[in-house]
Amino acid sequence: MRIPRKLEHVHYALQLGQSGKQGFSDIKLIHNCIPEASTELITLQTSIGELNLSSPIIVNAMTGGAQETEEINRDLAVAARETGIAMAVGSQMSALKNPEVASSYKVVREMNPSGLVFGNLGSEATVEQALRAVDMLQADALQIHLNVMQELIMPEGDRDFRGMLERIASIADKVGVPVIVKEVGFGMAKESALALLETGVAAIDVGGYGGTNFAAIENARRKQPMEWLNDWGCSTAVALLESAEALKESRHNGRQIALIGSGGIQGSLEVVKALALGASAVGIAGAFLRTLRTEGVDALISQIGHMHRELKLVMTALGAPTVAQLWNAPVVLSGETAQWCSARGIN
Ligand code: FNR
């Protein structure tokens, strides 16, 4: 019997791992030896549109749609509930087409009735599908993922990507909850971010290169792999700098639109660096999946709690008691990230 695609994604995400080339080694935070801060007074609260989050860490979209993925979603939801963090489910399109598998998504709301749960669909979705996806979970927000390169590498993937911006704008207008538009690991450049900022979305998740690699995953599934595409995309650090520049240039400089950093974030230092580059929150997928599958749900709960404590320590050292104050923390860029920014006129 053929293994469902969703399970293959879990399998290959774990087997292939992460390159770690998300660009954060090129970002240096500057130590503040006289911080006007106390760990007791640090708050991790942040916001995405109208949503208030008690932590900037989000369990990013992964799965649903098959029996084994229901167990993964149940455990992720328990970890999110116990640590008070927001969680997204994987693409719900399979449940919209086949209601029998809806329980593998609904389990997330059942396990976490009062937590923040984000729905997820691709940019091919219609307004009607978006409404049904939100309704399925009583979702607090809806993620719309952009995965052009992943589709192109899949032999059975989409080939026609016209009309994405219009569909995203209609969904943002009609769905009634904040919409987060997200890449899945190929990154977002300023030009794309500028266009997306005009669609009425509440947040953009830059989903950069350097973490879970969907080019490599789809190539591992293909009979005739196109491995020359495995390094496609821009790093998470670059994607954040590009998107922050778009925010500066756009009429949304007042920042009603949030940036989310994701792609290869595994530890607290990477979280802080993403926030210092202008993110309001970070999404973590592969690293949490690995802990869950190798060590179990209690280990995942401890890992997230540990990260929260570490974040508070580093924010104290930087003299930045809130996430928004971290945006002003000075950083020095080096290496390929600095070269990229200079070539692109980003400062
Ligand atoms: C994903 N990701 C994802 N994203 C999305 O928007 N819809 C989806 O259905 C999925 N499915 C999925 C399955 C698995 C097994 C993984 C590991 C990831 C992408 C995910 O949300 C994220 O954008 C990337 O994985 C990059 O982040 P990490 O994994 O490097 O932290």
TrEMBL record:
Keyword field: Cytoplasm, Flavoprotein, FMN, Isomerase, Isoprene biosynthesis, Magnesium, Metal-binding, NADP
EC number: 5.3.3.2
Cofactor(s) listed in the protein's UniProt record: Mg(2+); NADPH; FMN
Coiled-coil spans in chain: none
Binding residues annotated for substrate, in chain numbering: 5-6, 150
Residues annotated as binding FMN: 61-63, 91, 120, 182, 212, 285-286
Keyword Glycosyltransferase among record annotations: no
Cell compartments where the protein resides: Cytoplasm
Span of domain FMN-dependent dehydrogenase: 165-326
UniProt enzyme class: isomerase
SMART domains the UniProt entry points to: IMPDH
Binding-site list for Mg(2+): 151
Pfam families, alphabetized: FMN_dh
Catalytic activity: isopentenyl diphosphate = dimethylallyl diphosphate
Molecular functions (GO terms): isopentenyl-diphosphate delta-isomerase activity
InterPro entries named among the record's database cross-references: Aldolase_TIM (IPR013785), FMN-dep_DH (IPR000262), IPdP_isomerase (IPR011179)
Record-linked HAMAP family: Idi_2
Similarity remark: Belongs to the IPP isomerase type 2 family.
The protein's assembly and partners: Homooctamer. Dimer of tetramers.
Job of this protein: Involved in the biosynthesis of isoprenoids. Catalyzes the 1,3-allylic rearrangement of the homoallylic substrate isopentenyl (IPP) to its allylic isomer, dimethylallyl diphosphate (DMAPP).
Entry protein name: Isopentenyl-diphosphate delta-isomerase
Gene of this entry: fni
